[in-house]
Amino acid sequence: MGEEVAHYYRHPAFPEVDLLRARYVTHRFARHAHDGYVFGVIDAGVEEFEHPGGVQRAGAGSVVVVNPGVVHGGHAGAPEGWAYRVIYPPVGVVAGVAAELGARAGTPAFPDPVVDDPRAADLLRAVHRAGEKGDALAASTMLRTALTGMLTRHAHVRDHLRSGAPGEAWRMPRAVREAREILHASLVGPPSLDELAEAVGTRPFPLLRAFRDTVGLPPHAYLNQVRVREARVLLDEGLRPADVAARTGFADQAHLTRHFKRTLGVPPGAYRSARAIGRVGAHGAPEES
Questions:
Q1: Is 199 within 8 Å of 182 (Cβ atoms)?
Q2: d(Cα 234, Cα 272) in Å, to the nearest integer?
Q3: Can you tell me the distance from the alpha carbon of 125 to that of 142, in angstroms, rounded to the nearest whole number?
Q4: What angle do CA 135, 107, 235 make, to 5 degrees?
Q5: Among the four 45, 124, 183, 229, which has the fewest Cβ within 10 Å?
Q6: 174 by DSSP, 3-state: which?
Q7: Alpha helix (H) residue ranges in the chain
């Protein structure tokens, strides 16, 4: 399948919707979660990814779906790797389309992480083709059409997100909820596990177990996900990666790059270029940690 390559860019009509077109062979995505949805169509090869329902395999033509807040990883499921196109719409965009379709109030959920639907795959590819051309009208039309197809054929509506998703905080154990709040406020110089447990009135091991069971990640891994999300905000504002690393608690730019690429598949410098040229491209083999 050739060398590894990734292009990360923004939807021309919906700046909050990110798009990724990539080919990976050795790259492994760290376990992470997104605030919004993940819809990906496999163009070639096989992707294998961790999911709460077990390890999933998606071959050419399959559509991968990850709901908001669901912790997952990703790596090649075949020696030749995999190539795919991914759309990352926020909850508001998907819920808005669902409301236009007359769905009852709530957050749409997709029960199957891998879907065999050639029509949906074609529509997701069409979103990408229009987005790559910068055709806002065509891209917005295809995005809504693709989401309509996914919602009508593969979704149901739930009143609340699963544990760990942004809208579920009120259902979390108090100690976990308070620990998350402390971590969000402590990107630089976070407390130790012992200090975090003491701050929320429990002991380290029970907090670690409850945090992992509720959020899907241990506290240190969750903190790095929060740092990456904040890094995206600062990169969008035009800050240099070295400055972003210092402001988000990473040891240095290399530390930021490693976690950024393991979450988004592209380095922070390339991601930052999207603000200037509307497209992020990363060529060559992604880093491993």
A1: yes
A2: 9
A3: 9
A4: 50
A5: 229
A6: helix
A7: 91-100, 118-133, 136-154, 174-184, 193-199, 204-215, 219-236, 241-248, 253-264, 268-272, 274-277
